[in-house]
């Protein structure tokens, strides 16, 4: 069976919004950067399903990079990668899709730079020379086509206006005037050669930090009520980082020891005032049964 070339440029379907609106009430679970870790994805799914059992209006947002991870033997595992795992991105994609189907409209995956590599973005090479090609070889032609179609329906941002929270893959460093700028983003620029990336999209998917002024300008351009940006992309060994307000960078999985992995659990009807407040009241350990290695949770 012929496997199609990886990274084939896809366009957003006209009906797909770049920004998904979350409700003004209910519970919000936010996780980041699973990078093919099936065990961690299953745990995130369990957290969401347990929250759903208590409160039926729970929503889950995963801020990209569900796929692409190491497939190296445990004896060669470097300590800086945290707890050992063997990536199984194909099964993570399957499980992620099943979960979204089981809870229509309540499970949202945002595009990360690793997903973008499947739909027209630049080649990513973390553990393989071409991560998208590796995964697409494992998937085979038919599942690859399906995965690309699915990824091309994922939004870039999630917004919880009442809670004052914006979710995206990288730091909110892009210069935008309004949400309309985001709607103009294409996965691959029209008519351009492959590998050329929309500048705005590159910022959204690759920025690791932003100045306070720049980040607040970004939030304001979308909604003046937004107070905090939740994102991943970078590995924070201790589970979260607040470089400065309004930035809350979270590491739910990749690069961390199990006891340091964090996600956010927030009441969508509660307006957040700062990243510090969300860190203090919203961060939860993914594995409360595991001892922290580098993690220090904020105190009141
Ligand atoms: Mn990333």
Helix-strand layout with pairing:
Elements: E1 19-21, E2 27-31, H1 38-54, E3 59-62, H2 89-102, E4 107-109, H3 113-116, H4 131-151, E5 157-160, E6 165-167, H5 179-183, H6 199-206, H7 212-222, E7 228-231, E8 240-241, E9 247-250, E10 262-267, H8 275-282, E11 283-285
Parallel strand pairs: 1-5, 2-3, 3-4, 6-7, 7-9
Antiparallel strand pairs: 2-10, 5-6, 8-9, 10-11
Helix pairs in contact: 1-2
The structure holds manganese (II) ion.
Produce a short descriptive summary.
The chain has 300 residues and is of the alpha/beta class.
Number of strands: 11
Percent strand: 5-15%
- Major sheet summary line: 6 strands, mixed
Ions, cofactors and other ligands present here are:
manganese (II) ion
Give the class from helix and strand content and strand pairing.
alpha/beta
Output the CATH class name.
Alpha Beta
CATH superfamily: Metallo-dependent phosphatases
What does this structure look like?
It is a single chain. With 300 residues, the protein is of the alpha/beta class. The protein is built from 8 helices and 11 strands. It has one domain: Metallo-dependent phosphatases (Purple Acid Phosphatase, chain A, domain 2, 4-Layer Sandwich). The strands form 2 sheets. It has a 6-stranded mixed sheet. Strands 4-3-2-10-11 form a 5-stranded mixed sheet. Helix 1 packs parallel to helix 2 (89-102). The protein starts with 18 loop residues before the first strand and ends in a 15-residue tail after the last strand. Manganese (II) ion binds at residues 65, 112-114, 169, 233.
């Amino acid at each position: 069976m012929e496997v199609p070339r990886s990274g084939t440029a896809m366009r957003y379907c006209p009906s797909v919004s770049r920004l998904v609106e979350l409700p003004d009430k209910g519970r919000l679970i936010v996780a980041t950067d699973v990078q093919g870790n099936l065990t961690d994805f299953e745990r995130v799914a369990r957290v969401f399903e347990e929250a759903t059992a208590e409160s039926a209006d729970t929503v889950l947002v995963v801020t990209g990079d569900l796929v692409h991870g190491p497939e190296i033997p445990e004896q060669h595992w470097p300590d800086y990668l945290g707890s050992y795992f063997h990536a199984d991105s194909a099964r993570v994609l399957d499980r992620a899709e099943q979960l979204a189907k089981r809870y229509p409209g309540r499970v949202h995956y945002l595009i990360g730079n690793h997903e973008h590599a499947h739909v027209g973005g630049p080649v990513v090479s973390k553990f393989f020379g071409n991560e998208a090609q590796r995964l697409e070889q494992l998937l085979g032609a038919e599942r690859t086509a399906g995965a690309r179609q699915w990824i091309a329906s994922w939004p870039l941002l999630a917004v919880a206006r009442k809670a004052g929270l914006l979710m995206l893959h990288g730091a909110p460093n892009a210069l935008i005037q309004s949400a309309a700028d985001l709607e103009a983003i294409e996965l691959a620029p029209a008519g351009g050669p492959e590998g050329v990336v929309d500048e705005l999209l590159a910022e959204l998917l690759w920025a690791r930090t932003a100045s306070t002024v720049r980040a607040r300008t970004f939030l304001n351009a979308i909604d003046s009520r937004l107070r905090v940006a939740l994102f991943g992309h970078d590995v924070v060994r201790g589970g979260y980082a607040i470089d400065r307000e309004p930035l809350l960078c979270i590491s739910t999985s990749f690069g961390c020891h199990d006891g340091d992995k964090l996600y956010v659990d927030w009441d969508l009807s509660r307006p957040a005032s700062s990243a510090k407040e969300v860190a203090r009241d919203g961060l939860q350990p993914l594995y409360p049964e595991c001892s922290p290695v580098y993690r220090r949770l904020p105190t009141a």
